[in-house]
Amino acid sequence: MENKQSAQSDLAGMTDARVARHREGIRAGLAEILPLLMLVKRYRHLSLADMEWLVVSPMLQNRIALARLTSEEEGARPALRGFAFWASLDAEAEAKVKEQIAAQVFPIRLRADEWRSGERVWLLDVVAETREIATQLFIKFGRSPEVNGPFSSHPIISKLVDNDVLGDVQISEPTKGAG
């Protein structure tokens, strides 16, 4: 219900043309992201209804980083090769993420308003066709202006990217005995 109200309030101040462009952007984004999600075992158990909190909410908050393969064809849209879920959290939302990690909950579930609730940057997952693309996406994410300094990441990240690029990233480890 809260996600629906948030989406409705986001659309309330837009013109009809802008709403149409916004909706088309969401449809196009889903059309690219869903096929990659379907290739990854850790997401296959999710239902279509789960895509609202998993993909649409972070997409509306600009919290999905994309990796595209540039096309040699003039005018062709570069193909999506990978993406990353990330969030900028306040203390309360960060505690919620840490609790879910400790309880070995995956994927991390956030409310729509939590994806951009504060300044604590978290990389929650990287989904890519190859480890090399995941590593490049990780590096690109770390250098992006939105990150602006150190960030934390879900423990799964250390299994998806080359360890030599992890550097000073704070990998959150599950607390023993939690959950």
Protein model, in words:
The chain has one domain. Helix content is 41%, strand content 17%. A five-stranded mixed β-sheet has the order 1-2-3-4-5, sandwiched between helices. Helix 2 packs across helix 3. The chain is globular and about 45 Å long. It is an alpha/beta fold and 179 residues long.
Given the structure, what is the number of helices? 6
Strand neighbour order, sheet with most strands: 1-2-3-4-5
Shape: globular
Number of self-contained structural domains = 1
- The pLDDT mean sits at 84
SSE ordering: HHHEEHEHEHE
What Rg, in angstroms, do the CA atoms define? 17 Å
Provide the low-confidence segments as ranges: 175-179
Please bin the fraction of helical residues: 40-55%
Q: Structural class given helices, strands, pairing?
A: alpha/beta
The CA-CA distance between the termini, in Å, is 27 Å
Q: How many individual β-strands?
A: 5
**Beta-strand fraction estimate:** 15-25%
Major sheet details: 5 strands, mixed
Enzyme class: transferase
GO molecular function: acyltransferase activity
Subcellular location: Cytoplasm
InterPro entries: RTX_toxin-activating_protC_bac
